[in-house]
């Protein structure tokens, strides 16, 4: 299912809203899942360039390039108000399409391949994570995985967890 089918009818205010006192917004969650999937599937699994480019960042109007793990509540709130949610959804859909093609091309031997340090270094150099502890820990976590582990988390489980939150938050926002 394309992301636009899940959240296509959100207004910019709904996408930016933080429906719970502490937490995230739908815009942040879409950014977060797209960035993590883009970094891990492209740079670690396929060992290629990520989908994200300076042009995509400009279109989305994203103030950051990383996964958003270290953003404060206020930064998450500000992020949601700044981004172009339609452009963000398009980026998320492009990442998903690329992931599908990567997965289809994997061999059984590829699934057993460990994550390479060079890929982790490339993510840090590209600004996919920051040096802050709430961000940089991802490199250590991903470094313990093989390709099969990355297919399970983050490419599937992580995505489902956050999309479930988005559906819950959308229902909360619409119920008000």
Notable characteristics:
mainly alpha; globular; about 180 residues; 11 helices; Four Helix Bundle (Hemerythrin (Met), subunit A); about 0% strand
What can you tell me about this protein's structure?
With 176 residues, the chain is mostly helical. Helices cover 66% and strands 0% of the residues. The protein has eleven helices and no strands. It has helices at residues 3-7, 12-16, 26-45, 54-60, 73-82, 85-105, 108-111, 117-125, 133-143, 147-152, 157-175. The two termini are 27 Å apart.
What would you say the CATH architecture is?
Up-down Bundle
In CATH, what is the class? Mainly Alpha
Radius of gyration using CA atoms only: 16 Å
Instruction: Return the string of H and E elements.
Output: HHHHHHHHHHH
Helix content: 55-70%
Q: Compute the average pLDDT.
A: 93
Q: What overall form do the CA principal axes indicate? A: globular
Would you give the CATH topology?
Four Helix Bundle (Hemerythrin (Met), subunit A)
Main pleated sheet: none
Our count of helices gives 11
Number of domains: 1
Residues in β-strands, percent = under 5%
Q: Helix/strand/pairing class, anyone?
A: mainly alpha
Number of DSSP-assigned strands:
0
**Which spans of ≥5 residues are poorly predicted at pLDDT below 50?**
none
Gap from first CA to last CA: 27 Å
């Amino acid at each position: 299912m394309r992301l636009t089918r899940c959240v296509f009818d959100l207004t910019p205010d709904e996408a930016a809203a933080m429906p719970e006192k502490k937490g995230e917004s739908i815009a942040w969650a879409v950014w977060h899942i797209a960035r993590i999937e883009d970094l891990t599937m492209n740079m670690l699994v396929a060992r290629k360039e990520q989908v994200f480019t300076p042009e995509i960042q400009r279109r989305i109007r994203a103030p950051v390039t990383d996964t958003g793990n270290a953003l404060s509540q206020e930064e998450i709130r500000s992020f949601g108000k700044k981004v172009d949610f339609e452009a963000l959804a398009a980026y998320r859909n492009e990442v998903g399409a690329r992931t599908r093609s990567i997965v289809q091309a994997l061999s059984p031997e590829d699934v057993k391949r460990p994550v390479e340090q060079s890929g982790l270094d490339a993510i840090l150099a590209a600004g996919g994570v920051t040096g802050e502890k709430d961000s940089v820990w991802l490199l250590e976590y991903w470094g313990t995985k093989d390709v099969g582990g990355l297919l399970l988390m983050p490419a599937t489980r992580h995505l489902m967890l956050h999309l479930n939150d988005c559906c819950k938050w959308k229902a909360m926002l619409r119920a008000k």
